[in-house]
Amino acid sequence: MRSTSSTLRTRKSPSRLTASPTRRRAARAAAAAVAGALALSLTACGSDDDKSDGDPPKSGDATAAAVTLPRLDGESLEVSAVWTGAEQANFKKVLAEFEKRTGAEVTFVPAQDPIINFLGSKIAGGQPPDVALLPQPGAIKQAVERGWAKPLGADALEELGENYSQGWQDIGKVDGKQYGVYYKAANKSLIWYNAQVFENAGASEPKTWDELITTARTVYDSGVTPFSVGGADGWTLTDWFENVYLSQAGPEKYDQLARHEIKWTDPSVKEALTTLAEVWGEKDYLAGGPDGALQTEFPASVTQTFTGGDQPKAGMVYEGDFVQVNIGETEAEIGTDAKVFPFPAVGDTAPVVSGGDAAVILQDSKAAQALATFLASPDAAAVQAKLGGYLSPNRNVPESAYPNEVQRKMAKALLAAGDSFRFDMSDQAPQAFGGTPGKGEWKALQDFLKNPKDVAGAQRKLEADAAAAYGD
To answer: Which Pfam families match (predicted)?
Structure first.
């Protein structure tokens, strides 16, 4: 997963989207009744009236006691992450708060994807950052195996135990030892839509995959292309697949595929790809068609959905809560012009897929440990929460820290999943398979978007690349 990248889509005859395979119809009908167990109502909210001050907790606040940090006057730190744009700017405000509280000087060092390669070159040159934000559990494991990552100290562990569920702690561990603080999370089971387009078309929010197909046709018939897809960034396509696969195949199969305990040639993968082809195979349902989608980066996939009045390039765009950052670059108002619904249930239940970025210490020092402790606290998360486009897995961040009702409900949904959420599958894989542009799963799904009839070919390519990356 990435929360800062890009992509999009176009239109055609909706013939194949008029009906779903009979073998899935009964399961999907049942899903309509149970999808509400995981799907929160995320619409009609987010106007200016919903905004709160969202000030971070301060010492003496009734909601939270400020985390205790040492004085670090004269100390300096470098922090590296792949974040760009507003995401980077907002995180720098968190670092500025750390500087204010400790007296340390913190420099943000922009990283390139894949971050493991970037860190490798920095370490080889004798200039590693003190702390890095790693977007994949697989990257944390690689950093540990290469001897780069340092375990968290007692203060950071105490803060983690106080503020995080066991599930969020566990994905930051390697061989039972804690290395990562999941500072940033994502609810990646959301579809955003242009409210005016839906109103003009008479479309309603779908709760099941069949209803999503019906909604897409309704939007198409109104004269607007249904979907914008950021196919130039392969990670958006892995997120599509993961939501379909988790809901359709179930969590046990999801975990097995994530660990490569079953092959990508498994029938469950075939079924998920066949389902995806019900959308990806309708070129007129994608803004720009498959070729246009493959040239569209993630930010553009969002902005073109919410510009152009009631005739945008597309009516819907799939991606996580961080879409808000890019909507903010348009004139659309979240909760009024731009609304959101949970990813529809494909099987018995709607999916809850999450991602995130973990702070990992690369140079062990009092200052680096203090920063990790700060990032594990509600204080740090509350600073960025009020700026929008951000969710924290920290259960002690007050809801009032989020700037609008849409954001508060998404945060609540993430925490309500408890330990039943599933982490982004591609982020659990070795980076060579699940996190490298132009290679592995990203490239295989881009090829599948271009030719969604070749399910078997996509499976063979995915399995070959996975076997090589996992060392099977």
So the answer is: SBP_bac_8
- Tell me which residue range forms the domain holding 116: 77-187+363-386
**Token couple for 421:** 């959420």
Tracing tokens 């470098």 back to the chain, one arrives at 78
- Structure tokens belonging to residue 201: 């078309």
- Give me the DSSP letters along 284-299: GGBTTHHHHHHT--HH
The tens digit of pLDDT for each residue in 331-356 reads: 999 999 999 999 999 999 889 899 89
Q: Are 371 and 75 in contact (CB under 8 A)?
A: no
Tokens 């592995």 found at: 440
Tens digit of each residue's pLDDT (9 = 90 or more) over 46-102: 333 343 333 433 333 334 579 999 999 999 999 999 998 888 999 999 999 999 999
For residue 303, give the CATH number of its domain. 3.40.190.10
CA distance linking residue 81 with residue 373, whole number of Å: 18
CA distance 417 to 296: 32
Largest CA distance in the chain: 68
Cβ contacts of residue 192 below 8 Å, gap of 6+?
302, 305, 316, 317, 318, 319, 323, 327, 338, 339, 340
